[in-house]
C-alpha cells in the first residue's frame, strides 16, 4: 500500500539511507557508487532495455520536438544555470568567491540533464499517455550527447590558461562528432548482430547472447573514443530488433525480453540503493546559499525553457501541446544518478569545490525524486491528463493505420511535397528490396508481416482444435490453412504459384509500364498564374457552340413537324406580315428552295452529323401548301464530303448564313415545347 503513494525509486533511496546508516553505525566504511561501476555495469542494461523496446512510431513522429527539447533545452538550462550560479558566487561572500565561470558552467552542464533512469522509474508507474512519455523519456535519452560534450569541454577548458575562439568552434563541432559518431557506431553493431542472427538456426540456445554481446560492444566502443555510449546503445537496439526477431525462435525472443527487463530492473534498484548509501558515506560541504540557489534556478530554468520552446514548437505541430502537457513535461524533468556519477568523476586538483557540488546535486536529486516524483501522480489525476491504453491495438486498427500511411504518402507524391511519410516510404522500399534480403533468412524476408501473423493465428487455432477433440469437430469457418497445419505431412514444401512464360510476363510489365501513372515524379504545385494558355481553346469553344445551336434547331424542327399547322390568317393579316418582313415571307419561286437536310454517310444515326443547310417550313408565306409539296415533303440530300484542306473545327458553319437566320426567325414560336428529357439541363447552356 505504501508503493501506491510513494514511487519505488524513493523507497529504494530510503532503503539505501538505512543500509548506509547501519554500516556506518557498526564502524565500517559504507561503499560509494563509483563512476566506473555505474557507467560500465549499471547504466547499459537500462539504456539497452529502453532502446530495444523503444516505441519507434511515436519516437519518429515526434523526433523534431524531442531533439529541440534535448539539444536546445539542455543548452539553455546549462548556460542559464551556470551564468546565474556564477553571479551568486560573486555575490555570495568569501566562501564562494573563488569559484570561477568555467566551474559554474561545468556544474550547470552536469545538473541540467534530465535523467533517463529516474524518468523511467516514475513515469512507468503513473501510466502517462504515449505522447508525454516519449517526449520526456526521449529527451532524457538524447540529451546525453549534449551533456557529454559540455562536460568534457568545460573540463578541458579548466586546464587551459586561455580559451580562444578556435577552441570554442572546435567544441561546437565536437557535439556533432559525439552524437552522430555514437549513432554510427550503434548502427554498425546493430547490422552485424542482425547478420549474425541469420546463421543461428542450428544453435538456438545462444541466440540471445548475440543481442547482449553486440549491444555492449557498441557501448564500449563509443565510450572508448569519447562518443555518446547511450546514443550507440539506442541506435544498435533500434536497428537490430526487426531483423533479429525475424530470425530467432519464439523462445529466444521471450528470453531476450524477460532477461532485459530483469537486468534493467536489478540495475535500477542497485543505482537508487547506492545513491542512498553514498549520501551517508560521502564527504559533504553544505552551503545554504549555493544549495538553495541551485535548487531554485533549476526549477526556474526548466519551466522557462519548456514554455518558450513549446510556444515555438506549437507553430509547426499539428497536434498542439496543451498547457497541461507543458506542465507535465516541466514537472517531469527529474535528475538522477548520471549527474551524481559525472560529478564524482571530477578531479580535486582542478575542482576543489567538488564536495559542495556533490552536496548540491544530491539535494536536487532528492527533491526531484521525492517531491516531484511523489506529487506527479495526484497532479496527473487532478488535471485529468490522458492515461496510456493498456490494451493492444487490434488487427483492424493496424490495417487502417497502414492504409492511412499509404494514403498520406500518395497525397504527398501528388502534391509534390516530400514530407516524412514520403521518406518513410522510401526507406521501407529500400529496406524491403535490399536490406531484408541480406539480413533475414528464408522466406520471412519476402512474406508480409500481416500474412505471417495470419498464418501464426491459423496455426494456433488448428492446434487448439486438435487438442480439443480432433478434426471431426472442425467448424465451417476454419480455412484450409488450418486443416493443412493439422496434418503437416500434406503441407507442400513450397507454395505453388501460377507459371507465366517470360514473354507473357514481359508483355504485362510493358503494358503496366506504359499505362500506369508515374506518381513518383515531382509535380509542380498548382498556380493559376503559371498555367499555359491553350491555343485551340477558342476553336473548341466555337465548335461546341455550333453543336449546341444545331441541337436546339433540331429540337425546334421536331416540334414544328409534330405540331399541326395553324389556321389560315385573313388576307389583311397576311398582307401585314408580308409588309413587316417581306424577305422572310416571300413566296418560293421553284422547288429548289425546298427544305434540305444533309446527312453524313459515315454515321447517319448521329444527331451531330445532321447539318440543316436550308430548311423552310411550308406555310411560312401565309399560303396553303401545294399538293406537290405535300407529296414530296422534306427533301434529304447527302452531305458532300469536305475538301482535304478544310477543317470542321475552324471552318465557319452554314448555321451562320442569312437564310438560316431567316429560318430561325420563322421558327421563333413553333408551338408548345416538349418536356425536357432526363439527362438535359434545366436551362440549356448558351441561352
UniProtKB/TrEMBL annotation:
<dbReference type="GO" id="GO:0015386">
    <property type="term" value="F:potassium:proton antiporter activity"/>
</dbReference>
<feature type="transmembrane region" description="Helical">
    <location>
        <begin position="288"/>
        <end position="314"/>
    </location>
</feature>
<dbReference type="Pfam" id="PF16644">
    <property type="entry name" value="NEXCaM_BD"/>
</dbReference>
<keyword id="KW-0813">Transport</keyword>
<feature type="domain" description="Cation/H+ exchanger transmembrane">
    <location>
        <begin position="6"/>
        <end position="380"/>
    </location>
</feature>
<protein>
    <recommendedName>
        <fullName>Sodium/hydrogen exchanger</fullName>
    </recommendedName>
</protein>
<keyword id="KW-0597">Phosphoprotein</keyword>
<keyword id="KW-0832">Ubl conjugation</keyword>
<feature type="transmembrane region" description="Helical">
    <location>
        <begin position="166"/>
        <end position="196"/>
    </location>
</feature>
<dbReference type="InterPro" id="IPR018422">
    <property type="entry name" value="Cation/H_exchanger_CPA1"/>
</dbReference>
<keyword id="KW-0915">Sodium</keyword>
<dbReference type="Pfam" id="PF00999">
    <property type="entry name" value="Na_H_Exchanger"/>
</dbReference>
<keyword id="KW-0406">Ion transport</keyword>
<dbReference type="InterPro" id="IPR032103">
    <property type="entry name" value="NHE_CaM-bd"/>
</dbReference>
<feature type="transmembrane region" description="Helical">
    <location>
        <begin position="37"/>
        <end position="54"/>
    </location>
</feature>
<feature type="domain" description="Sodium/hydrogen exchanger regulatory region">
    <location>
        <begin position="478"/>
        <end position="562"/>
    </location>
</feature>
<keyword id="KW-0564">Palmitate</keyword>
<feature type="transmembrane region" description="Helical">
    <location>
        <begin position="260"/>
        <end position="282"/>
    </location>
</feature>
<dbReference type="InterPro" id="IPR006153">
    <property type="entry name" value="Cation/H_exchanger_TM"/>
</dbReference>
<dbReference type="InterPro" id="IPR004709">
    <property type="entry name" value="NaH_exchanger"/>
</dbReference>
<keyword id="KW-0739">Sodium transport</keyword>
<dbReference type="GO" id="GO:0005516">
    <property type="term" value="F:calmodulin binding"/>
</dbReference>
<dbReference type="GO" id="GO:0016323">
    <property type="term" value="C:basolateral plasma membrane"/>
</dbReference>
<feature type="transmembrane region" description="Helical">
    <location>
        <begin position="216"/>
        <end position="239"/>
    </location>
</feature>
<feature type="transmembrane region" description="Helical">
    <location>
        <begin position="6"/>
        <end position="25"/>
    </location>
</feature>
<feature type="transmembrane region" description="Helical">
    <location>
        <begin position="101"/>
        <end position="122"/>
    </location>
</feature>
<feature type="transmembrane region" description="Helical">
    <location>
        <begin position="66"/>
        <end position="89"/>
    </location>
</feature>
<keyword id="KW-0325">Glycoprotein</keyword>
<keyword id="KW-0472">Membrane</keyword>
<feature type="transmembrane region" description="Helical">
    <location>
        <begin position="326"/>
        <end position="345"/>
    </location>
</feature>
<comment type="similarity">
    <text>Belongs to the monovalent cation:proton antiporter 1 (CPA1) transporter (TC 2.A.36) family.</text>
</comment>
<dbReference type="InterPro" id="IPR001970">
    <property type="entry name" value="NHE-1-like"/>
</dbReference>
<keyword id="KW-0175">Coiled coil</keyword>
<feature type="coiled-coil region">
    <location>
        <begin position="502"/>
        <end position="529"/>
    </location>
</feature>
<keyword id="KW-0112">Calmodulin-binding</keyword>
<keyword id="KW-0050">Antiport</keyword>
<keyword id="KW-1003">Cell membrane</keyword>
<keyword id="KW-0449">Lipoprotein</keyword>
<dbReference type="GO" id="GO:0051453">
    <property type="term" value="P:regulation of intracellular pH"/>
</dbReference>
<keyword id="KW-1133">Transmembrane helix</keyword>
<keyword id="KW-0812">Transmembrane</keyword>
<feature type="region of interest" description="Disordered">
    <location>
        <begin position="600"/>
        <end position="687"/>
    </location>
</feature>
